[in-house]
Amino acid sequence: MTRVPIAPHMLRWARERAGLEVEDLLARFKTLPEWEAGEASPTLKQLDAFARAVHVPVGTLFLPEPPDERLPIPDFRTVENRAVARPSPNLLDMLYVCQERQAWYRDFAQVTRQPPRAFVGRADRSMAPDEVAADIRATLGVDLEQRAACRTWKEALRLFIQQADQAGVLVMVSGVVLSNTRRTLNPQEFRGFALSDPLAPLVFINGADTKSAQMFTLAHELAHLWLNATGLSDAGAAPVSGGPAEEVWCNAVAAEVLVPLAALRPALADGESLGDAVPRLTRRFKVSSLVILRRLLDAGWLDRAAFEQAWQQERARLLALSAGAGGGGDFYRTTISRVSRRFTRAVVSSTLEGQTLYRDAFRMLGVAKTSTFNTIGREVGVML
């Protein structure tokens, strides 16, 4: 049996890169401690299995030193105003996949002679956030009363995504890498990103986040498209200072898109307690309680001290709730939402016209069967 001499520090790097402890892999690789200590070497078959378990190309493990893995787009994430360190393989793989999809759609848009989206780059940070927010709502046809009539946050999010899709934005929502449910995306690492392009503007939303948080992420990433600014975000509703100026501005735009002060002020009730006002307004605007708290501060209804106390309490409550959140849903709807309805229609149409191979279409859509492909084609109105 042939053993492969792999540097122990490369095995440790690959495991730590995947966010795993030795104990997490012992059931599959019983001699992993010996491999990492340099006391034993894996077989080629074991090395291949290990590489798949830690989501790294097997050839990378033969390098003398770990590669310098950098995010392929600007990183606006911060934790307590400090830049975030090493990206996870899940995040990197999701970024690369979305870049590939965007490149494909850009070519498709050129072939089908689609016009550039006029809203991409229509704003700059010298413009007032409320002015840009009004333009976003008008471009998407956002109707606050229509959103208020939605029965659930999920329904309101679906409406918001549909409006962005119809305006020409590829909105992709997933909580896992491709369709691998064992590779969950962590909202604490990132909440979304925007890949700006006049022909193929793309927004990715971390579907493992709460529905109300996803609403804010979409609004935030749309602001990035209006700036024509590609970037990775961990956007939250907090009115923070000291972070990247672009993120602070995009947060202000997003808050105004979802809860315009002109609509909020008439909805405020004199003498109402904060405990009654917040849940009532979250139901009215279909946003998170954190967004409502931020807008109450913006409107002067809360002072800074009261806001800070309420914010910390509510954030702790939401974190506790998210720990027990579950998944599920309709398979075909989930599959389409992962790649966007607009992208799905384009891929199915191109495949039926013979411009794209079925093999490539299956890979980009994350499906494995012709019957699934055909059902998805019917779902998006391309096939009968």
UniProtKB/TrEMBL annotation:
<dbReference type="GO" id="GO:0003677">
    <property type="term" value="F:DNA binding"/>
</dbReference>
<dbReference type="InterPro" id="IPR052345">
    <property type="entry name" value="Rad_response_metalloprotease"/>
</dbReference>
<dbReference type="Pfam" id="PF06114">
    <property type="entry name" value="Peptidase_M78"/>
</dbReference>
<dbReference type="InterPro" id="IPR010982">
    <property type="entry name" value="Lambda_DNA-bd_dom_sf"/>
</dbReference>
<feature type="domain" description="IrrE N-terminal-like">
    <location>
        <begin position="165"/>
        <end position="296"/>
    </location>
</feature>
<protein>
    <submittedName>
        <fullName>Zn-dependent peptidase ImmA (M78 family)</fullName>
    </submittedName>
</protein>
<dbReference type="InterPro" id="IPR010359">
    <property type="entry name" value="IrrE_HExxH"/>
</dbReference>
